[in-house]
Structure formats: C-alpha cells, structure tokens
C-alpha cells in the first residue's frame, strides 16, 4: 500500500508527502514515544538502537517540515525525546559507547535542535534539557568510525550550540578538519581515508549533505569552511548529474541502497546550503530532486501497512546489509531538507526543468566509472533509454556484488549472490564468476590493480594463488565490451553474465530465449538482454536467477556464457547489451581477434576500439 497520494508538484504537496510517509509509523510508537518497532526483524546492533532509529530517522523529514508548517504530532515527538534520554524511564535509549549506532541517530536530533528549537528545546523543562544534553554529549567522548560518522559529532554540537547548551566546539572543529582531509579535489571525497574509503552514495547523501547542512547552520561563524563545502558540492553536482536518467532513476551501486530516495537528498541539500552549480539552473536541480523522489514513491517499496520496507525497488532482505533494521529505510526522508527553506526561495519558485543534455559517455576516474547513456529510439522515447555505468572494483565488507561488477544499470539493476552454491548462484550478472570445483563460484572481492584511461577501464583480479585475471572494459553503445586474459595453473570453471532481465510474462509465454552460436539472448516484455562470446568456445545459456536477489525485480534471468579453462593462458571476451524497448539484439556489435600477444576489438566498420596487451599497466 502506497500511503503517499501527493504528486510532489507543489510545496504543499511535498509537505503532505512527509506527513503521509510518517503517519503509518505512529501505530508502532511505544507508549512513551521513544521507540518504534514496526516489524520483528533486526540488525546486528541491539533492538534499542533499532527502535531509536524509528524515532530519529523520521525527524529528517519532520524537522524541515516543522520550520514553516505544522506536523501535528510534536507532543509525541517531545515525549519520546524526554523519555528516551531519561535514565529512570523504561524507554531510556541507554549509554552510547564507542562506535555505537546510537551516535548515527543523534545527528537528526542535533539538526532538529538547530532548525526547530521551538519544537524540541524550548518546551522542555530545565531538568529535561539537562538530560537531553547529557545523552547527546556522549558523542564527544566516544570513538567514531573514521569516515562520514565524524559528521554526527558535528551535527550534535551544532544543534547544542544553537540552543546555547554546553558543547565541544573544539572537538567539532577537529572532526571537521579530519573530514576535510578526505577531500580529493573537483568535488570528490572518499568516505574515509583514501586507502580505505569507498566512493559511493555516501559521498552525496552524507559527506556533501552534512557539509551543506553545516554551511547552512553555522556558516556565519565559520564562513571560510562553509564556502569550501558549498563550492565542493557545486563542483560535484556537475558530475553526479550523470548518475540519473530522464525519468528520475539513479544507478544502484554500493551499500545502503534501502535508503532509496536519499538519492535525491543531495539535490535538496544544494538548495538548503545555497550552493547552486553554475552549470545547472535551479529548475534543473529541482527537476533532478523531484523526479527521483516521485519515481521512488511510484514503486512497490511499501508494506501493506504503508511502511517503507527493507529492500530496494521492492521488499527483500536478501539485498540488505547487516545494519538494516526495519526502521533504517527512513533515512530516505533526508530528501525533504528543502522544506526548511522559505517558499520564496529560488528552489521552490523554479519550475521543474528536464535533465540537461549530457554526453553519451562520460569518464569519472575519481569514482572508477564510465557512465553510459545508450540513448532513446529514433522517436525520442525515453522508455527506451538505458543508463549504466562500467566500473572497476572497490573493496568493501558490505557485499562484493555491490562494488565489484563490471556494469551497474539504472534500468536492470544488479543481483547479489544466492544463499546456495552452484552454477548461476554467485551473482554473476555483470561479472565474471570463477570456480575451482564447478560448484562454489565467486566474483571478485578485491583487485590488485585498477585504472581508468580515457573511457577504458582495466583491472586485475587474483582470486587464488596461481590464478590471475586481467580485464579491459570499454563502451561501444549500446554495447560494451569485456576482454579478459586468464592465466591459471589449475583448471577453472567460469561463467560470465550480461544484464539481468525481469522475467515477468513467462507464465504467458511472452518471452524468447536464444542460445545459438556464441550468443545468449533473453527477450521479455521488460526488454532484451544479450551477451555474445568474442572468441567462441563458451556455452551460451540463459540462467534463471534465485528469486529476490535482484534489486529491481523479484524474478530475473541472466544471459550467460559458461566455459572451462585448463592450466595455461587464455584470451576470452564478450560483447554485452540490453535495452528496455528493443525487440532483438541491437546492431553494431563489435568484433574480436587475437593479434600476436594482444587482443583487438574492432567496430563493425573496422575501426579499432580497443587493443589489449599483457604488457599494459
């Protein structure tokens, strides 16, 4: 059940959407107001922290709403704040030690104190205020993860400072200095030190968003730092626009994707932080923001009770992380920060503008990506557009499939590994999966060497001693090509997958599987997906993926090439394409050849697209 009936075309409709999103949670609020437990699933942290999430995360929408409009349930919120910070109350949130999840949720309270003190601070008694301060200031004594978590300390102290409560401003500045050390230039941060931090959605919806919040809330006191945060965010916006398609979809990549329309939060934060990029109008910024939120609210992301579910486009725990509690998805409400702005701000006065013209292919070496727009059909039908990213691996403990595939698609998503072993169970779409025994397959967990050279990406993977795989990726729209040089001292079993495809319609026979020659192709009402073997020797097949492992669709198939490599050195390659509107494989498929010790990829008219040599770095 979708509780949101607003079209988000006007500010008042956006305000109503916040209320409609939060109200289903009220049935699950504890008697004291401090805890929310909508379902029985859990996360790796204790239940009290998960239930605190249910109290705090809706504040990301409720607080901006409350700056200029009424929520209607502030008494419940204040009761929760009072009881959750009272050690003598049954609903006390408890102490927050080193690396506690509770520090994450403190940030929303800190922002609430700064933006809506008349709602969350002024009505409290002196004793209630003191207990709130005592609970929040635990963040100043605890060790926090050396990444975006340091911003939680910043947000808490900004809020306490705003209401004249005791706080640690020196520690806040030290945390900000550390956060700025993660900056890499031209708008790019890593989420932590360069040799440890990933480049993913935590850059826009955390690193930049909190920096813009700081600029908005404390910019008068720290103008130079505030200006740095604004200029960096504006620079990043000119890159991040390439992650969104014309209809508002964003490329799914990395962890925490259950936060869904938090993808739009960066665009709203640009307005709150007054950081409009020179290359984008306010109408284009608002369009990017609104289309993403609107697209999400039109998807089956809700439970029957109107709650945001854990999952991505539909409810599934298989794609979640160990820290995703039933309340975690409400971080999505960070998208509503623009409601803290007055109605006459340029963001709200601007009409939504379409996505600006973008190149078909854009390299982003800072992210290890090449962004590709395969374009609409001749009639300009956006339903035929396909936005995807070619990618080099990043190391992460939060699921290798979320960081190490060759390709990530806004239209077709990606899949995680099955719970069961065996062929087709390793999340091999967009990847090369290898096995020593033909049963336990694995995709890359780490890469020893990666590079982005123009629009060509290279990587090296060494899954076992004596086994090395060097891969070259390059676009040739609507195709992309993959070339692998496999060196092995033992027998390897391999399967390489194309884009996953929604198999809805198979019960009515509305599908085609073709596995002839060296090509595997699947066609369903959702579109067509194919993979063609460049050098031959591999068996084409269409694999039915385990249900609920794909982010976008519960049931998918993956066109796949399967082969076995004996000890030695092997060249192998594939051309891959998918379209949401095509009836058959697209034209213009590249060709492959071996020239001495190099592999060569050519366009159909004989132009060299890629030359892969083992001596390349």
From TrEMBL:
<protein>
    <recommendedName>
        <fullName>DUF2264 domain-containing protein</fullName>
    </recommendedName>
</protein>
<dbReference type="InterPro" id="IPR049349">
    <property type="entry name" value="DUF2264_N"/>
</dbReference>
<feature type="domain" description="DUF2264">
    <location>
        <begin position="10"/>
        <end position="354"/>
    </location>
</feature>
<dbReference type="InterPro" id="IPR016624">
    <property type="entry name" value="UCP014753"/>
</dbReference>
<dbReference type="Pfam" id="PF20938">
    <property type="entry name" value="DUF2264_C"/>
</dbReference>
<feature type="domain" description="DUF2264">
    <location>
        <begin position="386"/>
        <end position="583"/>
    </location>
</feature>
<dbReference type="Pfam" id="PF10022">
    <property type="entry name" value="DUF2264"/>
</dbReference>
<dbReference type="InterPro" id="IPR049237">
    <property type="entry name" value="DUF2264_C"/>
</dbReference>
């Amino acid at each position: 059940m979708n509780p949101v009936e607003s079209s988000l075309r006007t500010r008042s409709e956006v305000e109503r959407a916040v209320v409609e999103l939060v109200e289903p949670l009220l049935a699950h609020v504890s008697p004291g107001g401090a805890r929310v437990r909508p379902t029985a699933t859990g996360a790796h942290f204790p239940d009290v922290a998960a239930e605190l999430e249910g109290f705090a995360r809706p504040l990301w929408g409720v607080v901006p709403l409350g700056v200029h409009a009424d929520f209607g349930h502030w008494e419940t919120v204040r009761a929760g704040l009072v009881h959750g910070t009272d050690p003598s109350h049954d609903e006390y949130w408890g102490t927050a030690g080193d690396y506690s999840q509770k520090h994450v949720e403190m940030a929303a309270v800190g922002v609430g104190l700064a933006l809506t003190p008349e709602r969350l601070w002024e009505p409290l008694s002196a004793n209630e205020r003191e207990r709130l301060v005592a609970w929040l200031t635990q963040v100043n004594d605890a060790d926090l993860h050396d990444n975006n978590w340091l911003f939680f300390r910043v947000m808490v102290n900004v809020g306490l400072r705003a209401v004249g409560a005791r706080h640690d401003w020196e520690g806040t500045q030290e945390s900000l200095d550390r956060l700025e050390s993660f900056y890499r230039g031209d708008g790019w941060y890593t989420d932590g030190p360069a040799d440890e931090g990933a480049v993913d959605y935590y850059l826009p919806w955390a690193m930049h968003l909190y920096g813009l919040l700081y600029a908005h809330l404390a910019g008068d006191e720290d103008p130079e730092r505030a200006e740095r945060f604004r200029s960096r965010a504006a620079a990043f916006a000119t890159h991040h626009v390439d992650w969104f398609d014309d209809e508002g979809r964003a490329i799914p990549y990395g962890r925490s994707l259950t936060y869904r329309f938090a993808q739009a939060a960066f665009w709203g934060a640009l307005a709150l932080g007054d950081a409009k990029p020179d290359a984008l109008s306010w109408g284009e910024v608002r369009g990017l923001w609104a289309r993403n939120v609107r697209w999400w609210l039109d998807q089956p992301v809700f439970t029957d009770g109107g709650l945001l579910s854990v999952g991505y486009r539909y409810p599934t725990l298989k794609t979640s992380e160990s820290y995703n509690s039933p309340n975690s998805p409400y971080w999505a409400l960070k998208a509503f920060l623009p409601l803290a702005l007055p109605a006459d701000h340029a963001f709200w006065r601007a009409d939504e503008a379409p996505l600006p013209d973008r190149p078909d292919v854009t390299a982003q070496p800072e992210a290890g990506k090449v962004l590709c727009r395969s374009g609409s059909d001749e009639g300009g039908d956006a339903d035929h557009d396909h936005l995807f990213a070619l990618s080099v691996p990043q190391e992460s403990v939060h699921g290798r499939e979320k960081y190490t595939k060759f390709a990530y698609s806004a239209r077709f998503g990606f899949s995680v590994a099955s719970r069961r072993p065996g062929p087709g169970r390793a999340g091999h779409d967009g990847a090369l999966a290898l096995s020593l025994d033909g049963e336990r397959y694995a995709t890359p967990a780490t890469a020893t060497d990666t590079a982005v050279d123009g629009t060509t990406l290279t990587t090296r993977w060494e899954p076992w001693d004596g086994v090395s795989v060097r891969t070259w990726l390059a676009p040739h729209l609507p195709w992309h090509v993959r070339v692998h040089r496999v060196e092995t001292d033992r027998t390897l079993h391999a399967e390489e997958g194309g884009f996953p495809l929604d198999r809805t319609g198979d019960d009515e026979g509305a599908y085609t599987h073709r596995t002839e020659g060296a090509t595997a192709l699947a066609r369903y009402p959702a579109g067509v997906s194919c993979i063609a073997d460049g050098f031959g020797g591999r068996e084409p097949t269409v694999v039915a993926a385990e249900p609920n492992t794909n982010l976008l669709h519960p049931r998918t198939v993956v066109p796949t090439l399967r082969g076995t490599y004996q000890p030695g050195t092997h060249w192998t390659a594939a051309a891959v394409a998918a379209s949401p509107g095509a009836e058959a494989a697209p034209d213009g498929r590249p060709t492959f050849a071996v020239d001495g010790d190099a592999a060569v990829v050519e366009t159909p008219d004989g132009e060299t697209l890629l030359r892969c040599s083992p001596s390349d770095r």
